[in-house]
Amino acid sequence: MARVRLIQQLFAAGLPSRSVREVLPCVDSGTAAPGLLEHLEAERARISERISDLAAARERLDTVIANTRNPPPECAHHARGQSRLAGA
Fold first, then answer.
1. For the chain, what is the mean pLDDT?
2. Which of 7, 12, 73, 81 sits at 20 to 30 Å (Cα–Cα) from 29?
3. Is the separation of the CB atoms in 47 and 13 below 8 Å?
4. 0.70 exceeded by the pTM?
């Protein structure tokens, strides 16, 4: 079951099936052949960059969510809502 989960994680991380096939024996043995090491390091760097991009996107969404729940006074949507309430 753990092996299936690992394969799913590797695919979800964007590794092509060829890379997954190369990585699985390394996981079993706990070590990688020197020629494969550079490839693994490159994949790891790519995954780290993707994580960073996803974290930045999450932070932007967090800001939008927070501003929607508690709009700052300078927010145009907030101001329009207040003026509608005042005229009601």
1. 85
2. 12
3. yes
4. no
